[in-house]
Known about the structure:
KsgA/Erm; alpha/beta; binds S-adenosylmethionine; seven-stranded mixed sheet; Helicase, Ruva Protein, domain 3
Amino acid sequence: MRDRLFYLISKYNLKANSDLGQNFLIVPDIIERNVERAELSEKDAVLEIGPGLGVLTDALSKKAGKVYAIEKDSRLVKILRTEYDWPNVEIIEGDALKVEFPEFNKIVSNLPYQISSPITFRFLKHDFERAVLIYQLEFAQRMVAKPGDKNYSRLSLMVRAKARAELVERIGKGAFWPRPKVDSAVIILEPKPPSERIELDENLVRALFQHRRSTVLSALKKSHHMLRLTKEEFRKVREVILKVPHGEERVFRLSPEDVEEIGEFLRREGVIRPLS
Ligand SMILES: C[S@@+](CC[C@H](N)C(=O)[O-])C[C@H]1O[C@@H](n2cnc3c(N)ncnc32)[C@H](O)[C@@H]1O
């Protein structure tokens, strides 16, 4: 596998494009473990973001019924189409943040780190059974942070509202070519059953987490413009906002349920708009 990768790199005189987060996996064990973790069978349709030179795609194609691999770099798309003859892989050329997703039930990817945040939020809008994803370590740690942790952020809250996330392995820089500047980690993401998922007002979450160390009251005051309220409008609803649930709590201690409660209160009092 490692040989094949370097053979392709030299055959096509390929320079990795760091703007596209091109750090290719060169350790077969990691690929095998991630394919195992995805618990694949013939019944599965897997989405892979950024197949690169196809090492993970190749392993996925042997276990899954179908693999959809979305790749933005047209050089790599050409190489994949020339070098492999997979009967069950569809290479989709395009930006994974923009192209329409095909139908899938699992995701396995070594993600380009530049799009970690938007692609994760995009995944969470879809229904799937399980995702096995490689992220930069710091990002992965934020994904699994709990309310009150020092790195608990908007991302941690939004992930927690929709899914269970577990960090199952740390990966050193040496597992990739070219070597990235930071370590990585594997996350298993499983969406919660629909009845347990919490719909949150994204503007409210942004407004609160803009000031994650402040109290809820103070964050709302400082971010009123993010709730689409002018200073004047905010002044009018000030008395109401003083009664907001968890008003004296620090933002970084809020659970998704707490934010839901705050949102419900503000909607009931007409301070923010209904969820669309
Ligand atoms: C970290 S590399 C992973 C490559 C390969 N899967 C591996 O593990 O060796 C990320 C891949 O994502 C591709 N990529 C970057 N941005 C993308 C985007 N917006 N949409 C789709 N693919 C993207 C890169 O060209 C690269 O092939």
